[in-house]
Design brief:
This protein is α+β, with helices and mostly antiparallel strands and about 110 residues long. It is built from three helices and seven strands, in the order ββββββαααβ. A hairpin with a 2-residue loop joins strand 4 and strand 5.
Length: about 110
C-alpha cells in the first residue's frame, strides 16, 4: 500500500514510490502514447506493452501539461488543483511515475 506524507520542506513524499518528486520536471515518457477518449485517455507504453486508463479529464490535462512546466508542483498550480484535492492528483502522478508512464525530464 502506498501512503503519502508531507516533509518539512512541504514536498509531498509517497512511501513506496520509486522516485517521484513534486520539485522535478516531468513529461510523458517518449515510449508512451496518449490517446484521448470521452472518459479520459488511454496510455500505452510501447516498451513494456502496459496499457493504462486515465478516467479523470483533469489528470489527462495535467499529464499533457507536465512537459510545459518547470516542475510537477508548477503543473498542479497551473491546472488550478485545490489544496484539498492535491493528494489525489499527487497519488495519480506517483502511480504514473512508478509505472514508467511519465518520466523526469532530467532522466531521459
Amino acid at each position: 500500500m502506498t501512503t503519502a506524507s508531507t516533509s518539512a520542506s512541504g514536498d509531498l513524499a509517497v512511501t513506496g514510490s520509486t522516485s517521484f518528486s513534486l520539485t522535478l520536471p516531468w513529461r510523458l515518457n517518449p515510449s508512451v502514447a496518449l490517446r484521448p477518449e470521452p472518459f479520459g485517455a488511454l496510455l500505452y507504453h510501447f516498451g513494456t506493452r502496459k496499457l493504462s486508463f486515465l478516467k479523470n479529464l483533469v489528470v489527462v490535462d495535467l499529464v499533457q501539461s507536465l512537459a510545459d512546466q518547470p516542475s510537477a508542483e508548477a503543473a498542479l498550480i497551473a491546472a488550478g488543483i485545490a489544496d484539498a484535492d492535491r493528494p489525489m492528483y499527487v497519488q495519480a502522478l506517483t502511480a504514473l511515475a512508478d509505472s514508467g508512464m511519465i518520466t523526469a525530464r532530467d532522466q531521459e
